[in-house]
């Protein structure tokens, strides 16, 4: 899928949030107008300390709301991404994607809590 130029993130960063902050963002999905998705971690039997750092990817864009509304996954291949993958494995595959208007902002316009799962047996 091709995005119009104004829907690209101008900046992005690999980030980490304590699980307690991730839970706050997930709560925001239910209480405010924000794009995103979450997971029922109890369903997967995942228990994580509130202090555990969860790796994520934050994207800043002047078109943050349209970008959040049309997000599609794209591959990232850098040494930083390999370190991010290692951090993700340390959390049992739990990670997130945040879309913001500015990387220094405390607010998100999109937040997706994600979990790596093994592919189903064929």
Structure description:
It is a single chain. The protein has helices at residues 19-31, 64-69, 79-90; strands at residues 11-18, 35-37, 53-60, 94-100, 110-115. It is an alpha/beta fold and 122 residues long. The protein has one domain. Strands 1-3-4-5-2 form a 5-stranded mixed beta sheet. The longest helix has 13 residues, at 19-31. It is globular, with a radius of gyration of 14 Å. It starts with 10 loop residues before the first strand and ends in a 7-residue tail after the last strand. The model is unreliable at 72-78 (pLDDT under 50).
Q: What's the story with the biggest beta sheet?
A: 5 strands, mixed
Please tell me how large the radius of gyration is: 14 Å
Poorly predicted regions:
72-78
Structural class: alpha/beta
Number of strands: 5
> What is the chain-wise order of helices and strands?
EHEEHHEE
- What would the principal axes of the Cα set say about the shape? globular
What count of structural domains? Answer: 1
Largest sheet strand order: 1-3-4-5-2
Helix tally?
A: 3
What proportion of the residues form beta strands (DSSP E)? 25-35%
User: Separation of termini?
Assistant: 28 Å
Integer average pLDDT: 78
- Give the helix proportion (percent range): 25-40%
């Amino acid at each position: 899928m091709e995005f119009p130029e104004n829907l690209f993130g101008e900046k992005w960063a690999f980030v980490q949030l304590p699980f307690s902050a991730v839970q706050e963002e997930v709560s925001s999905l239910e209480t405010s107008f924000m794009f995103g998705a979450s997971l029922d971690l109890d369903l997967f039997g995942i228990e994580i300390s509130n202090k555990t750092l969860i790796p994520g990817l934050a994207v800043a864009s002047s078109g943050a709301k349209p970008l959040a509304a049309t997000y599609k996954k794209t591959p990232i291949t850098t040494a930083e991404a390999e370190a991010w993958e290692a951090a993700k494995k340390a959390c049992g595959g739990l990670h997130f994607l945040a879309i913001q208007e500015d990387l220094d902002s405390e607010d998100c316009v999109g937040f997706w809590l994600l979990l790596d799962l093994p592919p189903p047996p064929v």
